[in-house]
Amino acid sequence: MEGGVRLRAGASKGDVREKVWDYLEASGLADFPRPVHRRIPNFKGASHAATKLLGLQEFKAAKTVKINPDAPQKNARFLTLEARKTLLVPTPRLRTGLFNKIVPPSGATKEILRICATSQGIKEYSVPVGLDGKARVDLVVVGSVAVSEKGWRIGKGEGYADMEYAMMVSMGAVQEDTPVVTIVHDCQVVDIAEELLDDHDLTVDYILTPTRTIKTNCKRPKPQGIIWHKVSYEMLGKIPILKSLRHREKQTGKDVTLLDEHSDLASANTPAVLNEKAMAENTRPQAAMGSAQIGQHYVESDSLSPRLEGSGMITTVYVGNIPPSVRVSELKCALREFHATPLRLNWQGAQHRAFLDYKDKATAESAVSSLKGLSLGGNTLRVELAKNQRNKGQVEINSHK
Q1: pTM of the model
Q2: DSSP code, position 156
Q3: How many C-beta atoms surround the C-beta of residue 48 within 10 A?
Q4: So what's the pLDDT on residue 263?
Q5: Is the dihedral of CA 307, 308, 312, 318 positive or negative?
């Protein structure tokens, strides 16, 4: 843009972000919330830019629209609700799931719809949509810090929009031809070097500004799903729904090795380590697993683990909302997958629950955190510390009915 954001040759993504944020603030274009740094920036004219959605045939034809929850897209959310379309909004930082479906009250006026489009309205008038909600998104609207006329996009640097899209692909909620729109100020449309883009970066098909509607004709492929070898354990911990998606994709035979695991495998496969592991296997006593199954009750404990009896440290975790179709082997597989294997598993399938004993409270709390958001058999499991803890790892199971 003439007289607008000026980028030096070789600018990094971070450089581009800082230049755009600085320019919006210095030129008086920034709007609440401020400062716009570290955000998808709101700008003067955002509401008008959003009205250009109404002219897109893709918007007119869409039944379900996913729009990010940031301030510059507030009017886009209102226009979607006013057009009586289904509006899906990602949960902030994906902490509690992927989508919230906005459900305005019956007979809602324009004023109420405007409230529904705000961050407060999203909290008050929404219901969560889980992995098995069979969502089908016809149009995606994202925020951007910078975007090029070729459709190359830079977000605020946390990767949530890219991850949201990849998760939608994994869920089957979007297709290869699902259009992606971004709403920005004209000064945010800049030249972006293609070498800055990675294979997980989301591209856009339309750019709406206060003065223009730009069709990018972008040919660069969008993300084809979650790139697991770029996902860290830390990210898995921050985004609980990722755990369920990973478990589900592993069940279909996909490679879901994480970034950290690639590093571990690289070091573990050196000749010295492999030789050491082979020697250990030859000398390690076999784990004798004691198990008993009576009707729908199943108790399993590892004889190599510290004895449960005589210890007052054991902490029990309750797992509920287990579907009748799920077998104990599936839960055990998930526990291993999320590094949450207990000292003892008490399976009570007829009551749709299980109890997991861990060596201490810290280990139990870590397991709860790891398993939060886990979905088996179409149900999101309820995972929490058992309400009544007893000595020697015993739990009052009647406290969870």
Answers
A1: 0.67
A2: S
A3: 13
A4: 57
A5: positive
